[in-house]
Amino acid sequence: MDEFLEDPEFARLMAQGDLIMEVTETLCELLDKEEVSRKELADRLGKTKGFVSQLLNGGRNLTLRTVADILHVLGYKVTLTPHKIEVEGRLGEKPARGQEVKAAEEAQKFISRT
Fold first, then answer.
1. Is the pLDDT of residue 94 over 60?
2. At what angle do helices 49-57 and 8-34 cross, to 10 degrees?
3. Is the per-residue pLDDT at 68 higher than 90?
4. What is the CATH classification number for the domain harbouring 79?
5. Which domain holds residue 22?
């Protein structure tokens, strides 16, 4: 696993997965805190319960607009606070094609398990 963490492409995919998971978990926590069901959230958004369930279960892409809509109907807004991390290699440095494919496959396996 260490070799995958050193691969820039794998690290990029992991960063995407981490952010998606953090946003989804935060939205679910807010629903619990506000005691709002998925059905009620769907009604507030003018969407179906199935649509909301797909969003919160990872079956649909959570766009920034959708996240903003959900937060708005729950009475929240988000403040983004980026944190600098140390990354081996240079930003934008492209790994060899074989490494890229291998990293993408491993990231997909990892994401599928979560």
1. no
2. 140
3. yes
4. 1.10.260
5. 2-113
